[in-house]
Amino acid sequence: xxxxLSELNKLPSKKIESQLRKYATDNKVPIVSESGLFYLLLLxxxxxxxxxxxxxxxxxxxxxxxxxxxxxxLIDTIEKSEEMAKIARDNIKNAKVERxxxxxxxxxxxxxxxxxxxxxxxxxxxxxxxxxxxxxxKYEKRLRKGGIIVSDNLLFHGLLTTKEKIDSRNLRAxxxxxxxxxxxxxxNKKYDTQFLEIGDGMAVSLKK
Length: 208
What we know:
- With about 210 residues, this protein is of the alpha/beta class.
- It has helices at about 5-10, 15-25, 35-45, 60-65, 80-95, 130-140, 170-185; strands at about 50-55, 75-80, 100-105, 120-125, 145-150, 190-195, 200-205.
- Strands 3-2-1-4-5-7-6 form a seven-stranded mixed beta sheet, sandwiched between helices.
- β2 (about 75-80), α5 (about 80-95) and β3 form a beta-alpha-beta unit.
- The model has no long low-confidence stretch (mean pLDDT about 90).
């Protein structure tokens, strides 16, 4: 995003937001960008979303920011890593939003989605990039009509559009997976999707 516009769009500084972002930077934990978070929070307010499902909790950075918007927002969030889930629980408790957040420590691909709500207003996907199609197909059934699915990191640090040679076979395979997801999502007739150059690339998909 243009640097000038990025400065204008800066989130109001909160102590918990600054602490979590610093922890993520120091420990190399991937979290949503500031501009991506700003846009996500704006979508929640415009949609008046109250029930949210998040795939990929990490340290609960975005989870906490969403909960802090309003006390009537309820979030179910799924995290595969036991270590990350423990850190996330501590952060949620420190932020005093544990009443609003249900953290599920499980592999989202194995978890029984029937145990979740059936009427989420918004689903935020920010987990293993190679599994985005599987996450989308598994959990879209829990999204209400008119709800939205937000997918993050769809430019993958600019590597999807770079002309430079990528030597790593694993990285090339991951880039193909993300490109396949973008193509699949753009052709999905059940959703109206917009791809946005926000943060590391976002897609917003509206369920028809």
